[in-house]
Amino acid sequence: MIRHIVFFTARDQADLGRIRDGLETLSGIPHARHFEVGRNLHADRLTGAEVDFVVYAEFDSEEDLAAYKAHPLYARAIEIVKPLRDMRIAADIEST
Q: What pairs with residue 94 in β-bridges?
């Protein structure tokens, strides 16, 4: 199983709703076993970074993750979110 985790920070806090809506677009892609978008609770003040949203998804294989990224809704989410975000950090880890 592949766990896909992506952190986003908004350029402008006024755009948080639009960013969430753009990220939620990804939920329409059928290749994920599990998908969620969450607002960071800002409970850990040690990092110094203010992550606003986390996207978490699970995929059965690297092929499913690749199909997710190739889906037209993925491109649409990028069109919506990229101009509004400041930072994006993505990580994919293999889990058993």
A: 2
Inter-CA distances, 80 with 11, 18, 22, Å:
13, 8, 5
Q: How far apart are CA 79 and CA 31, in angstroms?
A: 20
Please tell me the distance from the alpha carbon of residue 25 to that of residue 28, in angstroms, as a whole number: 6
How many Cα neighbours within 13 Å face the side chain of 36? 5
Terminal CA-CA length for the chain:
6
Contacts of residues 70-79 at CB distance under 8 Å and 24 or more positions apart, as own/partner, are 71/29, 71/31, 73/25, 73/26, 73/28, 73/29, 74/26, 74/29, 76/25, 77/22, 77/23, 77/25, 77/26
Q: Write the pLDDT tens digit of every residue in 13-43.
A: 999 999 999 999 999 999 999 999 999 987 6
Tell me how long the chain is.
96
pTM: predicted TM-score of the whole model, two decimal places: 0.90
